[in-house]
Structure to design on (435 residues):
């Protein structure tokens, strides 16, 4: 009979650090993008402590001894380190948190030395240079994966959790193989991290609201510039410039769709010229201090037709019916029932229609919990909770065969229900530069 291993004693979680500090009796604030000494805006050290405490709490419940992250959003959530959008798809940075120790960070070359100087919340000896191979650019035969796995195994032993499973979010296959060859029990840890990240603190909600306020202003600019002869790509360029001027740290993507490109939704922009009477919709995805928006608006150019107005009215009704349902304690399958079937918008399956009428969590990542749709929510329903922040998206094609309405609202789930923080007017179809 195998000997039963004693679980090591994990570091206790400070209950005060777990408190999200919500102030539901006050308006959701969207202050300026800089810190000041005469009013409280975002308290970053409190944000750091909250995120780490949430991770520790989730780790203690998971049965894992440690969590290893290559996902940039998880690395930032645990360690409060970042080296910019450049690193998002490189799988070169990684972070380890054991239940008994402090966060370890391996970063790209000199970035590690920078963190040791400028991130005093991390232990200096826990910040190291690392490089597992840059997505195959350095071949596995060099041995970097094995070297990384050995370093990780040594830390797991030192911190007393080497005999427990290791949670892992994403990685290159050779990294997984190296961990397994080092006799590390690897388990899927992404669900644990998404569970930790699902409840946003007051500081996180403030950052999300600031990010949304920037998009409010960009839509005012888009409405003014949306004229015949302007390219979809020019709208993207203008919006990107304005966001960076306002303080965005990353413009991840801007959808710019017009005219006959509206249905079906292509999810990208081109150099198509805007024409009179076009329907046009946009999605602005950017971040402020890492916290992301996903925020669609639809316009028509100069004038609108009855099919365009009808499609918009239908999309708006689906939106309003869904938002009205959203309250803490509601099961996500009940929310999904308010969303239209794939057949209602002319698609053969929920998979084919996915992403057009659904809800998705927002935070450091673009797609977090909750994710509510007819594809998944009837199979795996779970409870909505106070402090969740997510986007509600609807799409309706018009009967003219080319136009379509696309609306998205960002909402914060308060104790009383969903509060919209995407404030550019969208109750009725906006006509830009009416003739």
């Amino acid at each position: 009979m195998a000997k039963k291993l004693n679980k090591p004693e994990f570091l206790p979680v400070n209950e005060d650090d777990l408190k999200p500090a919500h102030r539901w009796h006050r308006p959701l604030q969207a202050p300026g993008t800089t810190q000041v000494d005469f009013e409280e805006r975002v308290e970053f050290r409190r944000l750091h402590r909250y995120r780490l405490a949430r991770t520790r709490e989730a780790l203690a419940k998971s049965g894992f001894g440690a969590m290893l992250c290559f996902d940039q959003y998880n690395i930032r959530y645990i360690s409060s380190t970042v080296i910019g959008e450049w690193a998002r798809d490189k799988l070169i940075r990684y972070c380890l948190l054991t239940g008994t120790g402090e966060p370890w960070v391996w970063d790209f070359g000199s970035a590690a030395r920078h963190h040791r100087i400028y991130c005093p919340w991390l232990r200096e000896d826990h910040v190291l240079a690392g490089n597992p191979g840059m997505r195959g650019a350095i071949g596995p035969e060099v041995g970097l994966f094995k070297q990384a796995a050995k370093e990780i195994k040594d830390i797991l032993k030192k911190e007393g959790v080497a005999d427990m499973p290791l949670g892992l979010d994403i990685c290159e296959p050779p990294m997984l193989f190296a961990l397994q060859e080092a006799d590390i029990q690897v388990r899927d840890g992404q669900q644990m991290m998404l569970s930790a990240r699902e409840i946003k603190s007051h500081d996180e909600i403030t950052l999300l609201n600031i990010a949304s306020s920037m998009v409010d202003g960009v839509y005012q600019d888009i409405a003014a510039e949306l004229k015949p002869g302007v390219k979809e790509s020019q709208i993207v360029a203008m919006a990107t410039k304005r966001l960076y001027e306002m303080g965005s740290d990353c413009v991840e993507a801007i959808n710019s769709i017009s005219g006959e490109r509206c249905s079906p939704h292509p999810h990208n922009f081109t150099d198509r010229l805007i024409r009179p009477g076009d329907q046009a919709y946009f999605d602005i995805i950017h971040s402020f201090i890492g916290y992301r928006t996903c925020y669609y608006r639809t316009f028509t150019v100069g004038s609108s037709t009855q099919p365009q107005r009808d499609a918009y009215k239908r999309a708006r009704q689906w939106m309003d019916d869904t938002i009205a349902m959203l309250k803490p304690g509601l099961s996500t399958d009940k929310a999904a029932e308010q969303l239209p079937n794939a057949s209602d918008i002319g698609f053969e399956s929920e998979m084919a229609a996915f992403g057009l009428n659904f809800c998705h969590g927002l935070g450091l990542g673009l797609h977090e919990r909750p994710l509510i749709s007819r594809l998944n929510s009837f199979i795996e329903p779970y409870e909505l909770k106070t402090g969740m922040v997510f986007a509600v998206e609807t799409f309706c094609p018009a009967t003219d065969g080319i136009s379509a309405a696309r609306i998205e609202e960002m909402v914060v789930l308060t104790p009383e229900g969903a509060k919209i923080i995407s404030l550019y007017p969208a109750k009725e179809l906006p006509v830009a530069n009416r003739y």
